[in-house]
């Protein structure tokens, strides 16, 4: 093992309001069931479970405006809890829920100081209501964090952009909407697609991303499990073929851990309803232990 002992606070966010497919609201329960807390304790970390941030059930909402307002309310609660967790000296490890939770988690994580963000995802989530074919908010959070999108969501926690282009590195990208691709080209973000990983290898890509974020004292990892190839992680909200292999994902996590700047992290889009015997959550829990210090020797 190669890590320093941390005080880790698990924070569940059982919210599925950012997409149409039901099931990711059960994600926090599934990853708890996979034994995440005990795995982290076995590494020597001190772990406490905060429980879940409240989120309303989709069936109680009647309009899209209700949905946006409910996402806003949950993200405000998460924003405040992540900020409080960091102030108390804990490492916030957030378990979603769909990726729209990052509006609150990354907002809170960057309130008191900027952070570099490693966005590990098959998707850029850089749509706006104008560019999105579906209108689903879970395809927009990174744009919202750049202050592109509905005012109700860009203003969560504080006004203004929560991230600058130089704060962001996207890794494992392989699926973009047509208009989103154009916007992303103009965004100035650091982007590493699956082609980059195929050509250069995950080690070189990870080291390059970390170097591009070297001006930051601390990092946040936003890990969407659909970055993994669905052959190995079938239980995700929006699976896309051609993703990371498990060993590549473990090396990615290990290299981030070795960098020693990691201060907060989240895992999103686990959908146990379409999973196979919880194996996606088992893999996710294993990857998080690599992110938090587990090594082969």
Question: Can you describe what's shown?
Answer:
There is one protein chain. It is built from eleven helices and eight strands. By secondary structure, the chain is α/β, with parallel strands linked by helices. The chain has an eight-stranded parallel β-sheet with strand order 2-1-3-8-7-4-5-6, with helices on both faces. Strand 5, helix 7 and strand 6 form a beta-alpha-beta unit. The radius of gyration is 17 Å and the shape is globular. The N and C termini lie close together (6 Å). The model has no long low-confidence stretch (mean pLDDT 96).
Any idea what the shape is?
Answer: globular
Report strand order across the widest sheet: 2-1-3-8-7-4-5-6
Strand fraction: 15-25%
Q: How would a crystallographer describe the biggest sheet? A: 8 strands, parallel
Order of helices and strands: EHHEHEHEHHEHEHHEHEH
Count helical runs: 11
Secondary-structure class? alpha/beta
The average pLDDT is: 96
Low-confidence runs (pLDDT<50, min 5 residues)? none
Radius of gyration: 17 Å
Keywords:
297 residues; alpha/beta; eight-stranded parallel sheet; 8 strands; 36% helix; globular
How are the SSEs placed, and which strands pair?
Elements: E1 7-13, H1 27-33, H2 36-42, E2 46-52, H3 64-87, E3 91-96, H4 102-109, E4 116-120, H5 141-145, H6 151-154, E5 168-173, H7 178-185, E6 190-193, H8 194-200, H9 202-212, E7 219-224, H10 246-259, E8 262-268, H11 279-291
Parallel strand pairs: 1-2, 1-3, 3-8, 4-5, 4-7, 5-6, 7-8
Helix pairs in contact: 1-11, 3-4, 8-9, 9-10, 10-11
């Amino acid at each position: 093992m190669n890590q320093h002992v941390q005080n880790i606070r698990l924070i569940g966010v059982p919210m599925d309001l950012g997409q149409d497919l039901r099931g990711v609201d059960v994600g926090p329960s599934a990853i708890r069931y996979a034994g995440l807390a005990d795995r982290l304790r076995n590494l020597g970390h001190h772990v406490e479970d905060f429980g879940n941030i409240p989120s309303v059930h989709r069936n109680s909402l009647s309009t899209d405006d209700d949905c946006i307002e409910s996402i806003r309310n949950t993200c405000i609660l998460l924003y405040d809890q992540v900020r409080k967790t960091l102030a108390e000296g804990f490492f916030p490890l957030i378990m979603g829920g769909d990726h729209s939770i990052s509006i609150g988690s990354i907002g809170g994580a960057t309130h008191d100081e900027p952070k570099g963000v490693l966005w590990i995802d098959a998707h850029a989530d850089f749509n706006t209501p104008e560019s999105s074919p579906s209108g689903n908010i879970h395809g927009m959070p990174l744009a919202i964090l750049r202050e592109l999108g509905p005012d109700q969501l860009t203003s969560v926690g504080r006004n203004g952009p929560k991230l600058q282009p130089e704060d962001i590195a996207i890794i494992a990208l392989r699926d973009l909407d047509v208009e989103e691709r154009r916007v992303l080209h103009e965004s100035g973000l650091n982007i590493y697609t699956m082609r980059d990983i195929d050509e250069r290898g995950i080690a070189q890509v990870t080291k390059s991303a970390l170097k591009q974020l070297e001006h930051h004292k601390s990092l946040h990892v936003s890990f969407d499990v659909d970055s993994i190839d669905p052959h190995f992680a079938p239980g995700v909200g929006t699976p896309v073929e051609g993703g990371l292999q498990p060993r590549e994902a473990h090396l990615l996590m290990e290299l981030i851990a070795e960098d020693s700047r990691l201060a907060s992290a989240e895992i999103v889009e686990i959908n146990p309803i379409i999973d196979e015997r919880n194996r996606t959550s088992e893999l996710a829990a294993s990857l998080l232990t690599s992110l938090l210090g587990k090594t082969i020797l």
